[in-house]
Design brief:
With about 240 residues, the chain is mainly alpha-helical. It is about 85% helix and about 0% strand. The protein contains ten helices and no strands. The longest helix has about 90 residues.
Amino acid sequence: MNKKNKTTIIVSIAVFAFVIAANFWMQKNKERNRELQLESKIKQAVDEKLKTLPAIKKMKKKVSDSQMEEKQSQVDLEIKNSIDRLFELDRKVIHGPDERKELESLLSNQELIQDSFEMLNDIQATHDDGLEKNQSERMRRVLFLTKALEWEGNPSNKELVSQVQEFVIQDNLPSISDIKARKSFAADKVELFANLKYLDIEKGLEIEDRNISETNAKLMRFANNFYKLNKERRK
């Protein structure tokens, strides 16, 4: 093979290698460009997501709050209907077996009892609902709790008595700035204290022994004198 042919072959090989290398580089460059474009799109999508995330969270919170409010409204309605039904049954002079069972179930209902004490302790509700409406509902709850106390066979009696004691003994009246609201809440304490002590004088005396509030002491002295509670003990 002469020198000219060898040179031609070498040049051809070099050109071929260059073409292959160039194609390889172009292919790699295309792949890299695609990766960069993909990364850019991903980053853009993430940035857009981050921008909308607060709005999404806010929207979810609104939906969640709305669902909670709806659920709470449903619970409040169920409790109101239950207490309405209790008073309806209580007004009857004679009860059938099913009605008596239903009445006793309502009088011992822990959810109703707990919700009533929460309602009686909710001072803020006087501002949210208005004193007149709030006072009317609290009167219903006090009446319900009184009837629950009056049922000697109430399986919830132990917890009920304990909750009445804790409700009466707490020193929360001085924190109520509105004088009408304070008198209204004081009346709830007096009524529940008087009813408990009339039904179980020892439990009533426990409240007086534990009490360290001068405000509560005045209320208890008023209840003892007005309802003659201590005279009942001497009989």
